[in-house]
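hey can u check if this looks right to u? its 330 residues, i copy pasted from the old doc so theres a chance i mangled smth
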Amino acid sequence: MDEFRAYDGKCVLVTGGAGCVGSNLTGSLAEAGANVIILDNLSSSYEWNIPEYENIEFVKGDILDDEVLKRVFKERPDYVFHLAAHFANQNSVDNPEKDLLVNGLGILKVLEYAQLVGVERFVYSSSGCGVYGLDSKIPFEEHDISISLHTPYQVTKLLGELYTNYFHNLYEMPIVNARFFNVFGPGEVPGKYRNVIPNFFYWAMNQQPLPITGDGSETRDWTFVEDIVRGLMAMGVRKEAIGEAINLGSGTEHQVIEMAGIINELTENPAGVVYRPRRDWDAKTRLLSSIDKARRLLDYEPQVSFREGLERTHRWFTENWELIRKSAEF
């Protein structure tokens, strides 16, 4: 898109840039002509997943480490996309203090350095699956957040938005809060604390039954990673987005049993599914975003259907199977 030419020649820092969203975002930024710095400690990602471009520099390090932050901010980035996080719900239940350190103190440190260098835009990856509660009306609209939450991850994702808003209100930092809904696609390696789709592909390709927690009628607003990336890049250049929280979703919902059936079909997995009790913290049986605000402010429109996204994810798994098999941590 023409408006993404604004990144040409600019320095862009992407924290958490080796993950699923980060690896896809950094590739698109590099193609737009940006000089990209990835900061990632590889705690839940892998160096082989980083796109290979001459204008991408990888720095292995932690957002809690001031020496590392001084190193990357010495380059005076024009844009910061803060994707680094302690992910996700079950991991935060098991490790709540680590969740608070990374998702709370971590974003505060990055914001402080971003303020010192005067960034043109600070885009934060919040969670549409986190900040809306059982008392929020479906489809979720940006104004209808909840303070009655069910996991530390949900709490700290909302905390991150409070910090970005604070820096916007006090220092006039040009921030945008991106609320992701159920991102999936190439670049996400399966593992104990990873999302359901990469884990289902991993188990299906090993001809294991897919474990459904609940009865399978639960719905999610699965959104293909390329659509998320287009939304993020628009957030970086659209003035209308400054100071706003904006949902990035597909605007449609699909049942878990439907998703499992497509994955078993694509992988020719004869093992089917097994049903297990729903997790204690998993209180939301439906997730569905309103993307009207993204359409209005970003001209955002999801372009990849759920079925096509799953087919492309399967193709990525097939092409990278040996690396994925060696890297998956359960």
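The longest helix spans residues 96-117.
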